[in-house]
Write a structure and sequence with these properties.
The protein is mainly α. It has helices at about 1-30, 35-50, 75-90, 95-105, 115-130, 135-150, 150-160, 170-180, 185-200, 205-210.
Length: about 220
């Protein structure tokens, strides 16, 4: 049941995003000089290009680390990057362009280990300056954990533990769990993964469960 639900969520998301991309194409035609409109279209194209790899063979949701990148739609990624470069060249940097730039860095990495995490952290910091929010700060902390090591990420994440917005936010607990795992703190990682499972919907529970298997028995 969980696998089918996850697959259904991804397919529904892909359908909705395809419709939004069509609207974005129209909006770009109507407002050709708006950098943020072009940035939004680039963001949607880049995000949608990775959709075919978001579900595994059994329907489980796949993280960026575990996705088969050969399933990513490269021509669409190239178009998204081209649109983004054109938008940035206008010199009117906005949130959509920064989010698209983050997605582009992910999309251009042939392997997870080749991801430009230092650049991603800087982009999230810039995004936070424009749109300060706990979720943006969380993403910046995750990027820092990969750019400078899990201890750096955990320090940043600990500063967010009292945030009301993140208390029941599954990605926050999953980020802590993964950082603990990479830091070799298996007991703390298992506890954080369980919090992530308790905070998320059934269709998404396979991600933390799979990660638990990488840090040994419960």
């Amino acid at each position: 049941m969980g696998s089918k639900s996850a697959l259904g969520v991804v397919k529904s998301h892909m359908t909705n995003l395809a419709a939004l991309i069509r609207l974005g194409e129209i909006l770009r035609h109507l407002l050709p000089d708006e950098a943020e409109v072009q940035g939004l279209l680039a963001l949607m194209l880049l995000h949608d290009a990775r959709a075919p790899a978001r579900c595994g063979a059994l329907g489980a949701l796949m993280t960026l680390e575990t996705q088969d990148r050969q399933l990513w739609i490269r021509p669409q990624i190239e178009r998204g990057v081209t649109l983004l470069i054109g938008a940035l060249a206008r010199g009117e940097i906005g949130p959509y362009q920064l989010q698209a730039a983050i997605s582009a860095v992910h999309s251009e990495a042939a392997e997870f280990g080749q991801t430009g995490w230092v650049e991603i952290q800087l982009l999230y910091t810039r995004l936070y300056d424009l749109q300060p929010s706990p979720v943006v700060a969380l993403n910046a902390a995750v990027a820092a954990s990969f750019a400078h090591g899990p201890a750096t990420g955990l320090t940043a994440l600990e500063e967010m533990e009292d945030s009301e917005a993140l208390r029941d936010y599954a990605p926050f607990h999953a980020a802590r769990a993964d950082s603990f795992r990479r830091a070799g703190e298996g007991s703390k990682a298992r506890k954080a993964y369980r919090l992530a499972e308790e905070s998320t919907g059934n269709e998404q529970k396979k991600i933390p469960a799979a990660a638990l298997g990488r840090i040994g028995p419960r």
